[in-house]
């Protein structure tokens, strides 16, 4: 996958947390018909960072992002995006923000090239169409009508339109939903390319592996607020460090959760001097289990969306990356 | 030292996290771009093209054939009398009906949500609609008049005054139709509901406004209702173009009422613009 290139020089590399954050949210509140969807959300996204908002369906991810994009009103709270309030920001601000939404259309009867050429005319300094086609891997589909693209190609076109105006900040709302595994991998490379160019990326997803792969930091959204923010491999903290030791004893399975499994194992081995401890297993919670505990105090498996369970991390080897 | 590969300083006048950005294009520039886009999308939609160009011709064919032997009160042949109504109704269909239904669909499909995130000025979007409607309407009128003159022997006006009247009735009527189409699409509902509502309303309005019947023979209450709406005035303006001057005596007012026609149409442009400014939304409420 070709990395995005920009003519404007921007520093790549680690997030610049010293300057004003790209996104700053305090106490964000949004209700639909009296029911709170986002309730007291606090969030900082640093410039140059890729931040993933992770959460089950209905957690308020899309609502929160749409408020940051300036297309939904909020009921309360402070929101600053690229130094301005999205509710009142003007066209110059919108030109600095790229949006790849879940459901947007773009003249289905046009070809891919015609679509890109047309929307180039909305930006102050658009990327060249040929460059965009290369960057998203669509040059061979340039002459195809938008309504004849595959789902994955369509998402790439959406991404191309989202970054066409050389945005400083890109919102990606569940960008890989419905993509096959190959298309997802290609899409990830594309997002990594953006980030290397210094573009700030705010991504929502309910795929754990996607957040783990792409994000510098992950925020877990549940019940309309962030329940945890951490780099992906530190998510869950103490939950992560707790191991479960299980073995068979007196015909039944015994399980002990402990932060010091080695000490327990020493005792177990001492109790079985003759040889094997029957059914012995030591497991640590993978990202999925940590996530399920974070998003609900007593998660009912039926209420958790299927795709979230896809990337399993049940064993000790299931750690991220 | 610099090499051939190194970027020249002039390409990067303001490096850093917030480079100076050129301002986004004006609403006028976007209106022009959108007019081109709307025309291209129109031409690639066979149902729309057929509807806009064939429907008025087919209506003329039906009415001229059914009433071929009858005369209108002014003495003009039926084909000539109904050309006025069909011209006016054609303008209404390409402006009010097509725009209203089209926007409701674009909103439902998320096309408008994209325009919103791009920061598209609403005025630029409206200008694109108006540009497409004006070009389409001019082409539609040319086809209709050509068919009427060649296939139905309708004698077209010769004086420049008549053509001037034709021009301002087309312009004002198409503008009012466009603005009211945008306004109606903003009142909410699914694109299906908006489409059905607009179609039903348009059919009734055509009966009331004297498109299908001789207007002076309609019941007075129908005349009074239709006098409040634009289509009746567009048909009347078109009659003043296509009927002989003597036919004015048969009109309810005894003359063509050009001043009132212009005022009513202009008033509807303003009313529609006020509704658009207050009610237009890029996306349906959540």
TrEMBL record, chain A:
Residues 23-248 form the ABC transporter domain. Residues 1-22, 298-321 are annotated as: Disordered. One of its GO terms (molecular function) is ATP binding. The keyword Iron does not apply. Pfam families: ABC_tran. SMART domains: AAA (SM00382). PROSITE patterns: ABC_TRANSPORTER_1 (PS00211), ABC_TRANSPORTER_2 (PS50893). It is a peripheral membrane protein. The keyword Membrane applies. GO terms for biological process: response to antibiotic. It is found in: Cell membrane. Keywords: Antibiotic resistance, ATP-binding, Cell membrane, Membrane, Nucleotide-binding, Translocase, Transport. InterPro entries: AAA+_ATPase (IPR003593), ABC_transporter-like_ATP-bd (IPR003439), ABC_transporter-like_CS (IPR017871), ABC_transporter_ATP-binding (IPR050763), P-loop_NTPase (IPR027417). Coiled coil: none annotated. One of its GO terms (cellular component) is plasma membrane. This is ABC-2 type transport system ATP-binding protein. It comes from Trujillonella endophytica.
From TrEMBL, chain B:
The chain crosses the membrane at residues 49-68, 80-104, 133-152, 164-187, 194-215, 262-280. Residues 10-25 have a biased composition (Pro residues). Signal peptide: none annotated. Its main location: membrane. Keywords: Antibiotic resistance, Cell membrane, Membrane, Transmembrane, Transmembrane helix, Transport. GO terms for biological process: response to antibiotic. It holds the Pfam family ABC2_membrane. It is a multi-pass membrane protein. It comes from the Bacteria. The keyword Membrane applies. GO terms for cellular component: ATP-binding cassette (ABC) transporter complex. It is found in: Cell membrane; Membrane. One of its GO terms (molecular function) is ABC-type transporter activity. Residues 47-283 form the ABC transmembrane type-2 domain. Residues 1-25 are annotated as: Disordered. InterPro entries: ABC-2_transporter, ABC2_TM, ABC2_TM_bact-type, ABC_2_transport. Belongs to the ABC-2 integral membrane protein family. This is Transport permease protein.
